[in-house]
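It is worth pausing here to work through a concrete case rather than discussing structure prediction in the abstract. The textbook approach is simple: state the sequence, then state the predicted structure, then interpret. We follow exactly that order.
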Amino acid sequence: MLSPFLVGAVALVVIPVVATSYFAFTRYDAITPARFVGLDVFRDLLRYPELRSALVSTGVFLAIAVPLRIAGGLALALLMHRRERLAVSGRVAVYAPSVVPEPATALVWLWIVNPVYGPVGLITRAVGETPSPVLLSTWGARLTIIAIAVFAVGEGFLVTLAARRELPTVLYDVARAEGAGAWAAFRRVTLPGLAPVLGLLSARDLLTSMQVTLVPTLLLTRGGPLNATKTLPVLIYERGFRELRFGDAAALALVLTVVTGLLVALQLRLLRRWSPSLRAD
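Step two, the predicted structure:
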C-alpha cells in the first residue's frame, strides 16, 4: 500500500537531492558534459556579490513574513473559533488565496499596487498625496512580496483552528475560576497549548514561504529594484535557467538547504526553551 508513495518520494525527492548534491560540485550547463571541480564552485560563490545581497533579502523576507503568517493564522483561527456564524464563509474566505494559481495572484497584486487605478493609488490620492509606483521602491517591492506570502495563510489557519478546538475546555474553566481574564487565558492556556502546532507551522513556513512567492517575484519585480527582492530561490532560478549555470544553481540550492536547516534548528531550540510541552521529547 505504501509503494506508490515510496516511488513518488524516490522519484520526486531522493533522486533530485542526489543529483543536486552531485552537480553542486561540477561545472554544468546542460549542453556539455558535467565537469567535476570540487569546492571551486563554492569558492566562486563566496566572491559572488549577488550571493550576499540574496542572503540579506532572504533574511529580511523571512524575519517579517514568517511571524506575520503565524500571527495572522492564529488570530483568524481564534476569531473563527469564537464566532461560529463566521465559520463556513470565513474559512472559505481565508483559505481561498492559498489555492489561487501563483500567476493569478501576481496579477491581482499588480492591480492592487498600481498607482493609477489600483486601490493603493486611489487611497493615496484620497488622503491628498501623490501616488508613486510601489514596485519601484526598495521597501515597497519587499512589502508587496511579503504581503503576498502573508495572505496565503489558509493551511496554517485550518491547522491552528483544529488545534484550538482540541484544547480541553476544563483548562479555561479553571483559568476563569482563578480570576484570569481573556488576555491571561490566552497567554497561559491558549498559547502554550498551541505551541507545538505553531512551532511546526513556523518551521514549515521557513521552508515554503519563499517557494510560494518565487513566481510572483519573477512576474512583478524580477528581483528588483536594486536586488531588494532577489532572494535565494530567485537567484537559483536565474543562475540555472537564465544563465544555464546549473552547477552554480545546484550549489546555491545546497546553501539554501543548509541556511534553512540552521534556522529551523535554532527555531525549534528556542521553542523547546519556551514551551514545556516541547521539552518532554
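Step three, interpretation. The chain is about 75% helix and 0% strand. The beta strands are 26-27, 35-36.
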